[in-house]
Amino acid sequence: MSFQGKTVFITGASRGIGHAIGLRLAREGANIVVAAKTADPHPKLPGTIYTAAEDMERAGGKALPIVLDVRDETAVRAAVQQAVDAFGGIDILVNNASAIQLTDTLHTDMKRYDLMHQINTRGTFVCSQACLPHLLKAENPHVLNLSPPLNMETRWFQNHVAYTMAKYGMSMCVLGMAGEFKGKVAFNALWPRTAIATAAVEFALGGQEMMRRSRTPEILADAAAIVFGKDAKTFTGNFLIDDEVLAAEGITDLETYKVTPGMKDEELVRDFFV
Q1: Which conformational region is residue 177 in: left (phi greater than 0), alpha (psi within -120 to 50 degrees), or beta?
Q2: Residue 50 catalytic?
Q3: Would you say the pTM of this structure is higher than 0.90?
């Protein structure tokens, strides 16, 4: 399907996966709402909402940069209204904003625990809630959460229970809202098979070595575009893995997504939820 004129509200869109998804849809003429916290340049991290918006417009779309902290309910509702005022509605919501800290129970301070739950679970819920009245009016409305499959086994929790709980909260929004709005709005989750070359990987997880053994955010952007092309009335409640989405469309050559060209697949770092 064409995304020409479709309005896509993306949280955490100033860099990384959110930026890549916005850019992919902007190339097809979509209106991208770049909703993120970064208004001023960061000393280590690339991009602001304004540079991201410029990227979207250069790619062929329209863009609206909005400074947004998804923990602030009033700000979320104001941002959604600003998007509707600018573009006339909302067709797609991407809940991408996320906080991460892979610490065990004894090394997770409650301030960080609260941050992860407020951004990941609560932020996803409130953004979905605020966008739903507009999504319900859209032609083929989709909500996509960047969150993992719900596997209730000890191994997925034992090393970083606080983070897993916060990310699974996003996935539980998919599980519940897909049922609640079945036949009206699609809710799906998308997660990578491997590590993805983002600031989180570089600065919070594995540094340059993990970056080298990652895939680029573009694999998730291409998978997301495929999801948004599906019929929202029937394609909902799915917990998707990026390369499986591509494979279902006949795309099996994933070499272009490797940060290090020619690296063997078995050398790539597997994501810790897959």
Answers
A1: alpha
A2: no
A3: yes
Q: Point out the catalytic residue in the list 113, 163, 168, 257.
A: 163
Q: In what order do the strands lie in the sheet with 31-36?
A: 62-67, 31-36, 7-11, 92-95, 142-146, 186-191, 239-241
Q: Which residue has the tokens 């809202």?
A: 177
Residue 204 pLDDT > 90, yes or no? no
Bridge-based pairing state of the strands 31-36 and 7-11: parallel
Given a contact cutoff of 8 angstroms between Cβ atoms, the answer to whether 111 and 152 are in contact is no
Q: Do strands 62-67 and 92-95 pair parallel, antiparallel, or not at all (unpaired)?
A: unpaired
Which value, in Å, is the radius of gyration of the alpha carbons in the chain?
17
- At a CB cut-off of 8 Å and minimum separation 6, what does 154 contact? none
Sequence-separated (6 or more) residues with CB below 8 Å from residue 260: 212, 213
Q: Maximum distance among all alpha carbons in the chain?
A: 49
Quick: pLDDT tens for 214-256: 999 999 999 999 999 999 999 999 999 999 999 999 999 999 9
How far apart (Å, rounded) are the C-alpha atoms in residues 108 and 101?
8
Spatial distance between the Cα atoms of 89 and 244, rounded to a whole number of angstroms: 31
Q: Which two tokens stand for residue 25?
A: 């849809």
Looking at the DSSP bridge assignments, the partners of residue 10 are 34, 94
Measure the CA–CA gap between 273 and 60, rounded to whole angstroms.
35
Mean pLDDT score of the chain, rounded to an integer?
96
> Phi and psi of 194, rounded to 5°?
-120, 175
Q: What is the pLDDT of residue 207?
A: 80
- Residue 20: what pLDDT? 98
pLDDT tens for 79-137 read: 999 999 999 999 999 999 999 999 999 999 999 999 999 999 999 999 999 999 999 99
